[in-house]
Design goal:
Blueprint: H1 11-25, H2 32-38, H3 43-49, H4 53-76, H5 85-99, H6 101-109, H7 116-145, H8 151-166, H9 174-177, H10 180-197, H11 201-217
Helix pairs in contact: 1-6, 4-5, 4-6, 4-7, 5-10, 7-8, 10-11
Length: about 220
């Protein structure tokens, strides 16, 4: 069972400023002295909260992936047939990262800075999160096609979806590319049309129209 992380008073502001600095300069290039300066603390004061930079990176990762996992669990257990769980999961993922862009970069690129124990704990959180998406992708495909995917094909499709969602950090800007909701709809429509179309242009177009009608009501 995942151990609970105790968040000390004053943590949130330190984590926020630390994420911003590391997302700007990279985790490896950021020093504890630089973090102390960015957070308006003495070096000794910063060490009161963290034993090392790698522990700080671990806490940012743990906090972020725990939040994502909690949101996904809530969506995955929603039994209302009117709600498309896959759409809501994509929406939750994108909105979380758009709101926490600095954290996201640390979560994506800071893993190599952590020790073995911390790496394994974050891997467990990621795996639990991926399994929930596996389940929602499988349910969506089976509901719309009657096909139950094998594990290899299901995981391949789920990783493709994560690739679409996670790479948005490299290019997405609301001022240039439209609102978060439009981005979410495009990812959902592109992914679902692809998995339901089966390589058929006509099928993909038909399914895209169906999905567009759904997201237009959301």
């Amino acid at each position: 069972m995942e151990k609970q992380l105790v968040i000390k008073k004053g943590f949130e502001d330190i984590l926020k400023k630390s994420s911003e600095l590391m997302s700007m300069h990279g985790c490896s290039a950021t020093s504890m002295r630089g973090l102390a300066k960015a957070t308006n603390m003495s070096l000794a004061g910063l060490y009161h909260y963290f034993n090392s930079k790698q522990e700080l990176i671990f806490i940012i990762n743990h906090k972020g992936f725990s939040s994502l996992l909690a949101l996904a669990k809530k969506i995955a257990t929603d039994k209302d047939p009117k709600n498309d769980r896959l759409y809501r999961a994509i929406q939750s993922h994108i909105k979380f990262f758009c709101k926490n862009r600095a954290d996201m970069k640390v979560m994506m690129f800071g893993a190599h800075e952590m020790n073995k124990e911390h790496t394994e704990r974050i891997r467990d959180l990621k795996e639990s999160y991926r399994k929930l998406f596996n389940k929602m992708v499988a349910e969506f495909i089976e509901k719309n096609t009657g096909i139950s995917l094998g594990q290899i094909e299901l995981e391949r499709k789920t990783f493709l979806l994560f690739g679409m969602m996670n790479w948005t950090f490299g290019w997405y800007c609301a001022k240039k590319h439209g609102t978060e909701d439009k981005l979410i709809n495009d990812i959902y429509n592109t992914f679902t049309a692809g998995v339901l179309g089966g390589g058929s242009t006509n099928g993909a177009t038909k399914n895209s129209r169906k999905m567009h009608r759904f997201v237009s009501r959301s």
